[in-house]
Amino acid sequence: MSPRQLPVVEFGAPVSAVPRGSPAADAPGDARLAEFRPETRALPSFFVWTLGCQMNRSDSEEMAGRLLASGCAEAPSMEAADLVVINTCAIREAAEAKVIGRQGVLARLKTANPGMRVVLTGCSVRTSNRAGLAKRYPAVDMFLRPDEEPELIDRLGLASAQAPVGALAMTAATTLVKGAEVSDASHLVRARADAVTGGAVLRGSAISAWLPIIYGCDKTCTYCIVPFSRGPERSRPFDEIVAEARALAAAGYREVTLLGQNVNSYGHDLAPEPRFTHVQTQRTVGRAQDRTARPDLAELVRAVDAIRIARDDGVGVPAITRLRFVTSHPWDLSDRLIEAIAECPSVCEALHLPVQSGSDSMLRRMGRQYTIDHYLERLARIREAVPGIALSTDVITGFCGETDEEYADTIRLLETVRYDQVFAAAYSERPGTPATHLADDVPADVKKRRLVDLLGVQEGIGLERNCAWLGRTASVLLDSVVPPRAHSHDDEADEEAAGTSASRDAFANLPHGIAHMLGRSRENKLVHVAAPATLLGTEADVLIEHAGPYALRGRLI
Ligand code: SAH
Ligand code: SF4
Ligand code: F3S
Predict the structure, then answer these.
(1) Of 326, 333, 430, 449, which residue has the fewest beta carbons closer than 10 angstroms?
(2) Which residue's alpha carbon is at the smallest distance from atom 1 of ligand 1?
(3) Cβ of residue 399 lying under 6 Å from some atom of ligand 1
């Protein structure tokens, strides 16, 4: 398969985005403009606490951007804020318990600062549970479903002439899924476009950006709350996504991650267009779907990859050097997408493809609608097309009725596939999901033991996968500096994971100007390296010298 001829878009030198929180981000360029700026002291300072997945992080960037555009200032902590926005995750009970457990602290903060307001949004807010929310979250003043997030500014009375982004005439909507009234993300598509054009997205990084392409989930996983929290799939228009990617490239972003609960279902709900007549993919598993003449993820990936910096060769290099996408679902991992991954130089050599279980009978109970044979066939196809691609997955242990044999099938799958990374969790029953009709009959201690055992098996596999990098050179996008002697617990865990209790020593007494830096390789491996802090935001070649199950350490070449 020969690479397609790609159109070339010219860019000037990238301007580096002003990092969030830098004073330059707020200061007017011309002092005379100061008097036209809104009275920030009269407006609440805000803090957004984000739990859950990347989609929530992206949604929080939009909410924070809208608040900033309405004249509010970002507070450095929850304690210092007048307005706390909690963007919740409902995927497991533990995620919700974290927020419930903070109600006392929030109540005390409100007593100390009577003007303080708390807004709770995200996946924990559903029409079906609205009545009980005030009891579960007594410190919260206002609840917004995910589809109501664009109304935050209006509902807080912050919309004004100075805040055109908050004054959008948008109404949230619901729709029915299996008889339940759920969020409908249709208008989020419009709201996103307005937030982007209005500059109301407060990106958390000046190096890597999230780019939502599809909202909601149409799948049938019986254990999962997401379709009930987020509603059906709604794709953003193709050209809007490409325009946002182009703007990110022009702002100097090196890495873009296309986001959605199911990115590879992108486009099925968009209108057919003559320019996409060559798209003919039909699903081979899952609910039947005719995608004729509609854009798909393969087309989108190629269009973003085709945003190029011109070179003499007439082909140029991708302006966004690293393109990723999460999360993929086995239903829609088409040959077209695999070809696009293989042919587009910007697409990173890493694929996250959740499997959930290694047993066909479990997959049937989970409503996943594919078999392990189908899943393995797709992995073989992508490994053939992209040799060396890093693979990761999600697994649930102890789902309803899971027998020792079914669990053993999952362990066997991990041993067969040899994933680079596995995200695993014990099953947690979620209210209103189809699985509540099945008995949650695997005892908690068995779920937990299976989880710990599985993670133990994967630790060995992860170490083996990472050891294969010893002596090789990885291209690492350096995205953070670890402050000296301020290693957080997580960093220590990472270092220990990297087999580097010696790691601390490796980064102690670094010469002036050299920092302990962290970054990701194209294969999504976490890499520790000593490098000049001025390299932050650049891609560096790192010779890998140490490997642990969860991270690598190397030397700058
Ligand atoms: N749309 C993505 C991600 C969904 S949420 C996908 O389909 O893969 C991320 C992960 O959370 C899921 O892959 C699943 O492994 C896990 N998860 C979802 N519901 C769960 C539940 N009720 N209990 C435990 N884990 C769950
Ligand atoms: Fe949940 Fe399944 Fe949708 Fe993923 S695909 S969000 S696991 S329902
Ligand atoms: Fe959690 Fe909602 Fe994401 S339930 S994982 S925040 S889509």
Answers:
(1) 449
(2) 261
(3) no
Amino acid code (one letter) for 199 = G
Where in the chain is CATH 3.40.50.12160?
1-204
CATH of domain 349-468: 3.30.750.200
Distance (angstroms) between ligand 1 centre and the Cα of 375 equals: 17
Q: Ligand 3 centre from 49 Cα, in Å? A: 14
> Per-residue pLDDT for 180 more than 90?
no
The listed CATH number (3.40.50.1100, 3.40.50.12160, 3.40.605.10, 3.40.190.10) that belongs to domain 1-204: 3.40.50.12160
Average pLDDT over residues 367-390: 97
Q: Is 263 in the pocket of ligand 2 (CB under 6 A)?
A: no
Burial of 227: CB neighbours in 10 Å, binned 0-12, 13-18, 19+ = buried
Q: Does the CB atom of residue 200 touch ligand 1 within 6 A? A: no
Contact 423, 392 (CB under 8 A): yes
Where are the domain boundaries for CATH 2.40.50 in the chain? 473-556
Cβ-contact 519, 529 below 8 angstroms: yes
pLDDT score at 314: 85
Quote the CA–CA distance of 474 and 520 in Å, as a whole number. Answer: 9
Q: State yes or no: cis peptide before 327, omega within 30 of 0.
A: yes
Task: Find the 91 Cα to ligand 2 centroid distance in Å.
Answer: 10
| Rounded Cα gap, residues 341 and 323, in angstroms | 10
The CATH T-level fold of domain 473-556 is OB fold (Dihydrolipoamide Acetyltransferase, E2P) (2.40.50)
Judge whether 257 and 266 are in contact, CB under 8 Å. Answer: no
Question: pLDDT, tens digit, for every residue of 232-269?
Answer: 999 999 999 999 999 999 999 999 999 999 999 999 99
What secondary structure does DSSP assign to 396-442, as a single string? Answer: EES-TT--HHHHHHHHHHHHHH--SEEEEEE----TTSGGGGS---S
**Is 355 close to ligand 1, i.e. is its CB under 6 Å away?**
no
Which ligand 1 atom lies nearest to the CA of residue 429? 22
Entry pTM: 0.90
Choose the residue to mutate in 178, 224, 229, 332 for probing ligand 2, maximizing ligand atoms within 8 Å of C-beta: 224
Q: Which ligand is nearest to the CA of 146?
A: 3
